[in-house]
Amino acid sequence: MPELQRLHAGHAPAVLAFELANRTYFAASVPDRGDEFFDRFTDAYDALLAEQEAGTCAFHVLVAEDGSVLGRFNLYDVEDGTAGLGYRVAEQVAGRGVATATVRELCRIATARHGLRTLRAATSHENAASRRVLTKAGFVPVGPAGPDDLGGKPGTWYQCDLRP
Fold it and tell me: Per residue in 44-76, pLDDT tens?
């Protein structure tokens, strides 16, 4: 059974493998991270861990029994009981309810461990799968998301008011 784990240094090789294996799949719905992301992965990863240590973000990975990463689920810009939510799942598990179930679990974690009351997520109009995940996980549309929010694409902001 896959397990949602808080990101740590030991996850780095599996996270890189996940990003590389799914790069083309992700680029179909979100802007590609670019070659520089992969060339400087270690530095970027260390910066993520430093942000997490500072308390402004909480990064998580969905880890399969074999240690491979099936998804990334992140809380970012944590401030005053609110955070942004970002996520991506491997192509091999897409469409199976994995993202929805894990976003729901992260909502529970956001309340229990981080004291958050509200999560916000933006998705492009083109990303029907992400819109379904957010809706099924209890998020509601709250307004337009501009191209600056979504790598050049228009979309919608969703919000979920968390219950303790």
Answer: 999 999 999 999 999 999 999 999 999 999 999
Confidence of residue 1 (pLDDT cuts 50, 70, 90): confident
Instruction: Tell me how many helices (H) and strands (E) the chain has.
Output: 6, 7
Residue 41 has pLDDT above 80, yes or no: yes
Q: What type of residue sits at position 17?
A: A
Residues 6 or more apart in contact with residue 162 via CB below 8 angstroms: 107, 110, 111, 116, 117, 118, 119
User: Six-digit token pair at 77?
Assistant: 């810009």
CA distances, 73 to each of 80, 109, 144 (Å):
20, 11, 22
pLDDT value of position 153: 86
So what's the pLDDT on residue 29?
A: 81
- Beta strands at 118-124 and 69-79: parallel, antiparallel or unpaired: unpaired
CA distance 32 to 55: 27
Q: What is residue 93's DSSP assignment? A: G
Torsion of CA 155, 81, 26, 31, to 10 degrees: 50
* Angle (deg, nearest 10), helices 12-21 and 41-54: 120
